[in-house]
Every structure is written in C-alpha cells, then in structure tokens.
Amino acid sequence: MNGLHVNSLRRARPAPPPSRHLEIFLEMMAAERGASVNTLEAYRRDLADFATFLARRGRPVEAADAKNIRDYLAGLAGRGRAPATRARRLSVIRQFFEFLFAEGVRDDDPAGAIDAPKLGQPLPKYLSEAEVEALIGAAGGGGRQGKRLAALVEVLYATGLRVSELAGLPLSAISRDGQMLLVRGKGDKERLVPLGDPARDAIGRYLEVRGEFIAKGLSSNFLFPSAARSGHITRALVAGKLKQLAVNAGIDPARVSPHVMRHSFASHLLAHGADLRSLQQMLGHADISTTQIYTHVLEQRLKSLVEQSHPLAGLSPKSSP
Fold first, then answer.
1. Which domains does the chain have, with CATH numbers?
2. Is 262 a catalytic residue?
C-alpha cells in the first residue's frame, strides 16, 4: 500500500453510526410541525455533518456536550462558513436536543446556553421597476415556450411566490373568476394572493397552449406540468429561464433569481403604499419580523416624501430664517 493511499485513508471521515433518535426527530418535524421535504433534507444534511464531526471523536450524536457543539461551530468558522450558515446549523442542533430533552432521552440540553453567531442585517436584493419591466418584455415571445415563460415571470412578480410554490401550483389554485391564487406554503398553510390584470392575461394566453406540455394520452393537475419526476416544472428550470431572460434584457444574470423577484415584488409594493401586515399575508411569513426587512423601502419613501413636500426642505442653512 503506497503512502498516498495510507494518507487518504487517514483523512477519510468515519461514517457516523446510524441514529434512531435522529430519524424519529425528523419524523416529528414532518408530522407535528409540517416541515417540507426540502426542510427535512436540509436538517438531515446539517445533523449528519454534526454527527460525522462527533464520530471522529468517538461520540454518538445523542451524547454531545456543550463543548462538542462549540468546537463544531468553531470548526465551521475556521473553514470559512458564513455566520448565517453557522447560525442555521446551531438552530437545527438546538431543535434536535430540545426534542431529546422533551422525550426524556437526555436530562439536559447542551445547546440551550450557546449563543448564536452575530449576524448582520443584509438588505434584500431587488430589481428596479424598470428592470422588472425589461425582464417581462424579454419574456413576451410567441409560441408555447414564450407564453409559458411570460406566465411564469408575470405570476412571480405579481404574487411574490416562493419558487417552490410557483413550480408546484395546482391548476385548481386559480379562483373561478381568475382574480386570486390559493397558495399552499410552508407548513401546509394556505393563503390567498391577488392576481393583477397583466398576470391574469399572461395566464390566459398560456392556458391556450398548456396541453402541449403534457404527454399525449396523459393528464396533469399542475398549472405548469412537465415530464419531470414531480410532474411539474422544477425550481432549477425557473431559475435558469430567469438567468437567460436577464441576459436578453441586458441585466447582469448574477443579480436575477426567483428570490430576487420575490424581494422585488415586496419592495415595489411597499414603495407604492402597501402596509406591512398585508405584505406579510401575501408573502406567507409566519412572523411580521421577517417582513420588516423591507422597511428600508419605507424609510426611503418617507425620506423622499419629506424632501419633496416639507416647506423647509428646499432651504439651505444660509437661506433659512
């Protein structure tokens, strides 16, 4: 056996032992808290990474102590993981040990006293109204592909849906009068989101060709069907189409994504007078504190209002009485 192979074996991570409690925790998250498939997969990956870290120290994941958790987070920082990533990992670990404590598996909670990494409050990235108009204009082609693309972009911007919500919309989500969408979001919670005229018109044109996206002899309950395993378009397809649209519209594709469209929807609504509570309901945020990241738009609008309307706003210090 050569030295290179020996070194590679030494560096190999030991596989963590299977954890029955971890699987029961994930089952609880799905059954009692309505966690989505994507959330469960993310939790599984994060906890598996933590379990692998502990396996190198000869300790099962259920037996971790506070020092193990702090060492794990320090190791993530040493590998250049962002504070937000470390905070997310700690949140998952906390929920896992809270579960073990509640179930009587442990008589303490080693994660409870560990402080999360300090996070900044990054402002949401969004496009200007002119840039969104350019994207929509670039999507206005003919044919079935063009009509579907126009409907996707119009609905994204008109509703602020998460891309997973958009991709999996059932055809029945559209109200009979075409004025509203019934959206099933995180935790299987339903909400009604209004559709404006441009989005309704784009959907109407797309529905004329929707059947062409369904294999002959088959049917589909999805608004945007496809041959994918899920039966509907994928998040990756939507993201890729937006990137190509950005190129066609002369916008840096790195600045355009489904979530940027969601941020643009929220920011533009606030700029035109929407209130935070209404926006919270349309975005499907469980807590209004999540929606408050968009208050930067309100601050800019109020500042402009004062500068334009206040009787003293145009006076320089020298000319003021």
1. 13-102 (1.10.150), 129-306 (1.10.443.10)
2. yes
Q: Has 206 been annotated as catalytic?
A: no
Higher pLDDT, 75 or 11: 75
186 is known as an active-site residue: yes
pTM: 0.60
Burial zone of 15 (CB within 10 Å; 0-12 exposed, 13-18 middle, 19+ buried): exposed
Active-site hit among 162, 210, 232, 268: 162
Closest to 159 in 3D by CA, of 297, 236, 264: 264
The catalytic residue among 147, 148, 200, 285 is 285
DSSP 8-state assignment for residue 232: B
Does the annotation count 184 as an active-site position?
no
pLDDT in tens, 154-185: 999 999 999 999 999 999 999 999 999 999 98
Is there a contact between 223 and 170 (Cβ–Cβ < 8 Å)?
Answer: yes
Amino acid type, 20: R
